[in-house]
Amino acid sequence: MSGPIPDLVVEAESLVKRFGEVTALAGVDLGVRRGEVFGLLGPNGAGKTTTIECLVGLRRPTSGWVRVLGLDPATDRDAITALVAVQPQSASLFDTLTVRETLELFASFHAAPLPVPEVLDEVGLLDRADARAKRLSGGQLRRLLLAVALVADPRILVLDEPSAGLDPSARQALWGVVERLRARGATVILSTHHMDEATAVCDRVAILVAGRLAALDSPDELIRQRAGLADVAFTVAPSVPDGELRAVLGAAGFESDPVRDGIRVRVRTADPDALVRRITFQTSLRARDLSVRQGTLEDIFLELTGPADDSAGSAAGGSQLAEEDRDRRL
């Protein structure tokens, strides 16, 4: 077995986690670098939350090993708690405490917490500081959970579906928080179902499928490697013959469909810039309504994960509940 690598703050090697007959993780290798935003992507039941639970010491792996800042998160609980903060998908808060009181309570658990007003301002809850937790909307509760994690001033922040239930402006604010954490040198690990979120904030992403690592790289590099073709579309007059289109488009090939005011032409190409130049320079085409759609992280996600299927997630979830008490005693 190899040892920890100094440049990495989170490492997992051959990580396996089974719940009865269900294998939630089947030999995952991960390394998260200091100061990066690392995304965990995958469909329901892929193993994202189980991975997070193993990384922060909430579950012991069935086999393999994990190191966080050189520590074993399952055995070095006190040290890990002081260095790593987690915002789970859901958690119970004290309904009758105000937002400020909630954060002051959790701040009291740490030796050097951040100032409570600063954190409330960071997550956009300063104007709700005197509201009781039970009066908050779903999105505001998510922001309060984020504040509870941030107030510890952690070296590593783990966010499990942090933008669930947030409106677009709140999601943008969350991305700003993540960006400022990175600027301060903190490491952020987040799981998300939003491909635009992963593309916008993550330095690298790992895509899990059925408990296995299907892809790992920066969003831009994954797109370059796996979604290199772009779709170019434009409209020409009905009188433009197919022969002229073939002469301009060359070996690329094309599809065409009649539309109200002409023919809509679609081409897939690895060099959309060159193709657009040819189309626009060929003045006899009189092409209009040009559009270029590059490959996206969502295209790669769908390619790797296939059709949605919740059966694996349901089976794993049932086994998790059955073994939850046993795991807590380990």
List low-pLDDT spans.
Answer: 310-330
Total helices: the number is: 12
The appropriate CATH architecture of the largest domain is 3-Layer(aba) Sandwich
Strand order of the largest sheet: 5-6-7-3-8-9
Q: What is the string of helix and strand elements?
A: EEEHEHEHHHEHEHEEHEHEEHEHH
Write down the overall mean pLDDT.
86
CATH superfamily of the largest domain: P-loop containing nucleotide triphosphate hydrolases
Main sheet attributes: strand count, strand direction, barrel closure: 6 strands, mixed
| CATH topology tier name of the largest domain | Rossmann fold
Helix content: 25-40%
Annotation, overall tally of beta strands: 13
Radius of gyration: 24 Å
Shape: elongated
> Which structural class is indicated by helix and strand composition?
alpha/beta
Kindly give the count of domains. Answer: 2
Cα distance, first to last residue?
A: 23 Å
CATH class designation of the largest domain? Alpha Beta
Description:
There is one protein chain. The chain has 330 residues and is of the alpha/beta class. It has two domains: 8-224 and 299-329, Rossmann fold; 229-294, VC0802-like, CATH 3.30.2130. The protein has helices spanning 48-55, 77-83, 99-107, 116-122, 138-150, 168-183, 195-201, 219-226, 242-249, 272-281, 297-305, 311-329, and strands at residues 8-19, 22-33, 37-41, 63-68, 84-87, 156-160, 187-191, 204-209, 212-217, 230-236, 255-259, 262-269, 288-293. The strands form three sheets. The chain has a six-stranded mixed beta sheet, sandwiched between helices. Strand 6 (156-160), helix 6 (168-183) and strand 7 form a beta-alpha-beta unit. The two termini are 23 Å apart.
